[in-house]
Amino acid sequence: MKKLKFIMFFVVPFALVVAIVTMAVLPLVFNRDVSQKTKNLTAEERASGSESSDSGASEADRSLKGGAIYLEPYATYTMNGGTISGSSNTYGGAVFISTGATFTMNGGTISGCSAKYGGGIYVSTGATLTIKAGTITKCTAEQGPAIYIEDGAKVDIDENANISKNEIYQYKKGPITEIGPEETMGGSYNGVDSTVKLRTVYFGTYPQTYVGDAMNTTLENWYSGKTKEKTYTIRDAQVWDAYEYTDGQLYARGSSYPYSTSYKYKDGTTIKAKGKAVWFKVEPIKWYIMNYDAWQNEGEDIELMSELALTSYIRFDDATSSWTDSELQTWLNGNFYNSAFDESEKTAIKLTANKNSRTGYEYLEEPDTWTGEITNDHVYCTTFYEVSHGMFVNEENAGNGYASRQCSPSDFALSNNCSMSTSYTTNYRTGTCNWWLRSAGFKIEPNFLPVMKRAASGPPAACGVSSSGYIGESTAYWFNNCYSVTSSSTATRPVLHLSA
Q: For residue 349, what pLDDT band results from cuts at 50, 70 and 90?
């Protein structure tokens, strides 16, 4: 049996004992009888303290909890120094804190421990973890390399503690049931890779991946006479009907309308020509969590932006650059909202009051100065201001900002008139696209050079991000990235807020 060293300073009622223990994999068990002190919980606290977690710890066997220390319900333990190293288990590589139990860390080190959930410490619902000092380092886990915190646990970590926030996972009940690891947002620009790393989630469903030629033929021969389960309407004749196949998977069928037949789907298959029947898998939508730390640590609502541009062929509008009542706003809050999310998911999506800019230079200014109408949106596009500030800006290397804004289209978008450049590559595919922002841009003359005043026949314009990630952050208006509102090849990348 594998041995490990366990060196711990801990408090007992009468003396400070320095313990050096060499033990087997089985952890030390602390229960109420040997605890230094026990908190008497009220009936209400006991009722709310039952274990509840997406990790499955509440149903797991006791032997799977705590690689070095297991605190039984309502036990108390204090770590003042020493080292726990190399221990492992499924829940809490070093320490597992049961409901009602309290673990305090005043010093010492937890190092090199591993688990599926909580490489260093696992904190159950109703448990209390207080870390005033000490270090948790080089621990590994699928979720929470340092600490895994169940919803309803009480955790207080002092700034003197040496623990990376990125290694703490807090599970919260709500629409988000599983959070993926950090992934790179965007791609690469002129040899400079994006350095923006964000956690991801899946929420809602939408047609995305081409089924492949063989399955496309199979489904085309099968679907006649079958009942439609769902309809996805893009615009005009672009209507996609979804059917549940014998494998239980939902597939959407429609007519391909590619911007170019030279494009290829993600599997390398040449895109279907205009008018050809084509099928796509209806799949969970992958989103970047734009405010993970603020959500986890400050209780903010969850802001999500889709990883992919989900479709094209949606014009911003046919006459206006105002987001209010534009064709794009109407479609996102109508057809897309109603087809991508079920009723339970809709209840989790918050109605967001969005400030909007008017045509001209306003989109370059602070949002508080915008004079456009405030809109209430369930789903919307982000703004020029947001993609030219914060995580999207690297003052030391502008190329990094370009790279972080790059976005690949789904296969479904490619069959809905999305234009794509194969000069850039993201984690998803080789190929990136132009995508809409909701910011009103400059007017456009017939030669499509952005200018301050519109010529009689020139269409208005809205801001967008180019396939390279370029947006043109300049008051020299001819350098800014605006598209005619009537463009149907610019893609749509939704944003939404979920209740925390």
A: very high
Supply the pTM of this predicted model.
0.69
Alpha carbons 286 and 309: distance in angstroms, whole number: 11
Phi, psi values for residue 128, rounded to 5° = -125, 130
CB distance 251 to 242 below 8 Å: yes
Calpha distance 393→397 (Å, rounded): 8
Tell me phi and psi for residue 335, to 5 degrees.
-55, -45
| CA distance linking residue 244 with residue 450, whole number of Å | 47
Residue 475 CB coordination number (10 Å)? 8
Mean of the per-residue pLDDT values of the chain: 84
Residues in CB range of 318: below 8 A, 6 or more apart = 327, 485, 486
Tell me the chain's radius of gyration from C-alpha atoms: 27
**Is residue 228 within 8 Å of residue 251, measured between CB atoms?**
no
In degrees and rounded to multiples of 5, residue 328 shows phi and psi of -70, -45
Amino acid letter for position 262: S
Helix locations, 197-250, DSSP H = 213-222
Furthest-apart CA pair in the chain: how many Å?
90
Q: Give residue-wise pLDDT tens across range 167-183.
A: 888 776 666 767 888 89
- Alpha carbon distance 455, 448 (integer Å): 10
Task: Give the separation between CA 251 and CA 259, rounded to whole angstroms.
Answer: 22
CB 327 within 8 A of CB 443: no
Structure tokens at 21: 């223990």
pLDDT band at 443 (very low <50, low <70, confident <90, very high): low
d(CA 404, CA 471): 12
User: Residues 289-301, buried b or exposed e (16+ Cβ, 10 A)?
Assistant: bbbbeebbeeeee
CB atoms within 10 A of CB 476: 7
Q: Which of 245, 206, 192 is nearest to 394 (CA)?
A: 192
- Which position has the token pair 């984690």? 427
CA distance 322 to 372: 8
pLDDT tens for residues 191-236? 999 999 999 999 999 999 999 999 999 999 999 999 999 999 987 6
Residue 435, H or E segment: strand 435-440
> pLDDT over 70 for what percent of the chain?
81
CA 2 – CA 73 distance, rounded (Å): 28
227-242 burial: b if 16+ Cβ within 10 Å, else e: eeebebbbbeebebbb
Question: Number of C-alpha atoms within 13 angstroms, CB side, residue 211?
Answer: 22
For residue 398, the surrounding DSSP H or E stretch is: helix 398-405
Q: 182 to each of 188, 255, 350, how far by Cα in Å? A: 17, 36, 24
Q: Are 130 and 99 in contact (CB under 8 A)?
A: no
Q: Where are the domains of the chain?
A: 4-170, 285-498
> Looking at residues 455-473, what average pLDDT do you find?
77
Per-residue model confidence (pLDDT) at position 442: 66
